[in-house]
Amino acid sequence: MREKLFEKILLLCALSAVTALFLIALFIFYEGLPLIFRIGPANFLFSSNWAPTRGHFGILPMIVGSLQVTVLALILGGTLGLACAMFLAEFAPRWSVRILKPLIELLAGIPSVVYGFIGVLVLVPLIRRTLGGPGFSVLAAGIILGIMILPTVIAISLDALNAVPLSYKEGSLAVGATRWQTLYRLTLPAAKSGIIASLILAMGRAIGETMAVIMVAGNALIIPKSPLEPVRTLTSNIALEMGYASGTHQEALFATGVVLFIIVALLNTFALLALRKKV
Amino acid sequence: MKRRPLTIQRLVWFLLALLTLFTLTILFFIIGYITAKGVPTLTPEFLFGMPERMGKEGGILPTIVATIYLALLAIVIATPLGVGTAVYLTEYTRESALTRIIRFGADALAGVPSIIFGLFGFILFVIYLKMGWSILAGSLTLAVMILPTIIRTSEEAIRTVPYAYREVSYSLGGTKSQTILNVVLPNALPGILTGIILGLGRSVAETAAVIFTAGSSLRMPRSIFDPARTMAVHFYILAREGISMPRAYGTALLLIISILVINAFAYILLFRLTRRFR
């Protein structure tokens, strides 16, 4: 009897995560979808007119903004993070990796608001002085997000590179290849799916990040034509207006959440598939 | 011509070393900058004083209390669920459709952006369940957010407990539940604690999910049904509305110190655990 009860309780616990996921999807869609269908998905997704208090709900600038900022972050953070992971995996002395890897992972815990704060104080004025424009811009948001995803990219790619069997490398080095040739021709391709997964996970983090982006992006309701112009992302749109929105305006913010949820769900599915292939 | 691969290797080495150095510089610059600017503000009066004029003057005691309440309650809610899930996945099932669904749920939940948790917590806990902006609503939201971390680390910790330990328990007549409670869980404890501590760190650092569920009242919370403002939210408001820069630096430094200490604890525990069974 007692054993059966124990197992039942555990099963209930085990269903908590799926239930939570289901509830999140249910509530976001339940609150957001009706508005999307009332004004038509095309109007919602492809109109640039966002004036929710006057009945205009076009989130195209935010979609474009989110994508621009995320792609920029991925280019910057991906390049730096991968270079760092490659160096730590192949060239850096063992003792330094043992110190640096936990340190880098510790940095993943720094609150996003702190990154945003540094962006406002250091990066935004720097961009304003050297490149012009208001400083609050796609560029600023992309750089801050790029820095924020570094720990994710480094940690997961490094694990992937280290997971390549040593015998592969020994074989390559034994036939006279240099360490770089081995890394470039053998270890990188072998760790490919892990590295891709790290980039997709980082992309999910970047597109989902809110507070840091609000602080440095300027949040203007335009489709930016240059990286120096201000931008508003999907996440900032929700967080900026949630404080005072009600009625259809609030529905529109949940509808923005629906779009964000779908984008992130797709990205995560790709990441999981890439990681599963690793073995 | 024959030496070219080595020349390339030296070039690449130099380039990668430079990029690595650059990356590390950026990351440590952030900590150094906040530390340098924040240290003068971190006085006892700041830490243990009540805020005045919306935080422009005075201290941050209520936000520290709110952060502790919120994070601890989130842990209390999420830990039994997370550890229960991990035990069920490791001790009671083989790979099946059900375990795949459970794992998928945990993995997918880990990828949900915090602002979505904020929306969800707001509509379900604050509005539908009529909790209002409160520590309870904030903690429930955070609990859902940190659940995947606790599940995954607990699962790994339980798997590191050698099978022989369980066999000894069974051979002494222990039932399955006795074995789990008296043998498996105590031996997996450091790893489980790691997950809990990492969850604690995430709860302390979180802003977007908390601001719409726990609110931003600066008053000292008296119960879990009161609204509250955490350190992270307070820092965000101070910085974004430019209320007081020295106090923003001070709050940021305290936030970073707490999180680095919390996470360092987690890593030390994890390090101990991996050493014990290898």
Textual characterization of the structure:
The complex is a heterodimer of chains A (279) and B (278). Chain A has helices at residues 2-14, 16-39, 41-46, 60-91, 94-107, 112-131, 138-162, 166-174, 179-190, 192-208, 211-217, 234-242, 247-276, and strands spanning 50-51, 56-57. Chain A is mostly helical. Chain A has one domain (61-276): MetI-like (MetI-like fold, Orthogonal Bundle). Chain A has a two-stranded antiparallel sheet. In chain A, strand 1 (50-51) and strand 2 form a beta hairpin. Chain A starts with a helix and ends with a helix. The mean pLDDT of chain A is 90. Chain B has 278 residues and is mostly helical. Chain B has two domains: 4-41; 44-276, MetI-like fold. Chain B has eleven helices and two strands. Chain B has helices at 4-38, 44-48, 61-92, 97-111, 114-128, 135-160, 163-171, 176-205, 208-211, 231-240, 245-276, and strands at 51-52, 57-58. In chain B, strands 1-2 form a two-stranded antiparallel sheet. In chain B, strand 1 (51-52) and strand 2 form a beta hairpin. In chain B, helix 3 runs parallel beside helix 6 (135-160) and helix 5 (114-128) crosses helix 6. The interface between A and B is large, with 86 and 83 residues.
